[in-house]
Amino acid sequence: MARIVLLALPLLAALLCVSADPNVLFKEEFADGDDWQKRWVQSKHKEDYGLFKLSAGKFYGDAEKDKGLQTSQDARFYAQSARFTPFSNKDKTLVIQFSVKHEQNIDCGGGYVKLFPSKLDQSDMHGESEYNIMFGPDTCGPSTKKVHVIFNYKGKNLQINKDIRCKDDVFTHLYTLIVRPDNTYEVKIDNSKVESGNLEDDWDFLPPKKIKDPEAKKPDDWDERPKIDDPEDKKPEDWDKPEHIPDPDASKPEDWDEEMDGEWEPPVIQNPEYKGEWKPRQIDNPDYKGKWVHPEIDNPEYTPDSDLYFYEDFGVIGLDLWQVKSGTIFDNFLITHDEKYAEDSGNQSWGVTKEAEKKMKEQQDEEERKKQEEEEKKRKEEEPQEEEAEDDDEDDDEEEDREKEEEKEEDEDEEDTLQKDEL
Ligand SMILES: *[C@@H]1O[C@H](CO)[C@@H](O)[C@H](O)[C@H]1NC(C)=O
Prior knowledge:
Elements: H1 2-15, H2 17-20, E1 24-28, H3 36-39, E2 40-42, E3 52-55, E4 68-71, E5 76-87, E6 94-102, E7 108-110, E8 113-116, E9 133-140, E10 144-153, E11 156-159, E12 172-179, E13 184-189, E14 192-198, H4 199-202, E15 210-212, E16 227-229, E17 244-246, H5 258-261, E18 268-270, E19 282-284, E20 296-298, E21 314-323, E22 328-336, H6 339-348, H7 350-382, H8 387-422
Antiparallel strand pairs: 1-22, 2-5, 3-4, 4-22, 5-21, 6-12, 6-22, 7-9, 8-9, 8-21, 9-10, 10-11, 12-13, 13-14, 15-20, 16-19, 17-18
Bound molecules: 2-acetamido-2-deoxy-beta-D-glucopyranose.
2-acetamido-2-deoxy-beta-D-glucopyranose (NAG) is lined by residues 191, 340, 343-344, 347, 351.
């Protein structure tokens, strides 16, 4: 009996190599072909969810390693999720990490994950399903390019009060959220810190600690004027002079005919002695008390909570999002208690393939450019005499494109609102 157990142990460890490290709660790198479909569940809440397919995309650093879940249909909602052994982050650091590649040059769409409690019915996951944490990039038009960090607290979804910009290029980027049991947090992009702080300051978990004393009121005789009119200063007797006077140098023209031209009046000029409105000199106000500051009191509504970071139960990670132009690849999902492990894991995945990915993209762009050059050349050789007429056509096309672009942006704005409502 003992021998069987001994023999079985290494095998078991190999099979469960992920769960073997108690600090790794979920890891998904899509390294086993179509088997991901056994681990991920498609929601049936709607009938027309977009399909994820396994792909490394049009350009990549490593054809195998860079395979991830790619959105494959435009203008669709997506809803896939995977379950893991339920855990709580009580007294432990929680790290959520994954990579996102918007190789389609995304116009409008989500690139975030949601962590749900284990009670979630995956086959019915949808935009309103209650989650614990939502984290990751969200893009819509030129105005929305941000990283969401949303915590569910007592049934309410709280957005971060800071603006964290997400990446808006076509390459793979690593997004990491760290939440620590001392109620501090950190957001990293590509293994570099982009934001950090503490939960109480950067989300409206709790009402403010201090409020303005509702009993306090500025005394009626509180003088906030630093300067006053000098009571000693009096307007000089000869101050008031008209602003305009008849020109003393003007004289009636000799050929002026009163009967024909009417009574002669000299032209009016600015009076050089006019001093404008008199204002008394300003002196320091002897009664000045400074600006009145509304005294604050402890907010009776405030109760500290040292467990803002804490969730009893995590059990499912999900991609629940909307995309206009599809093509985003999600990969390298990791949930762990170990910050260092996550960083190293990011280095081993995103860190290893990012340079080669960039290179392949540059090569493709270069080839594309050459191809277009050739085609242009060929076109010109074939129809040299029609060049002028064609130029005009091109101008029209450009204008049309611009109009289309504008329409598109308007659409995007609407979609932005849609997404917000979903939150
Ligand atoms: C990850 O890579 C960066 C940059 O090469 C390096 O500074 C850092 O120490 C690495 N982290 C780990 C945990 O190996």
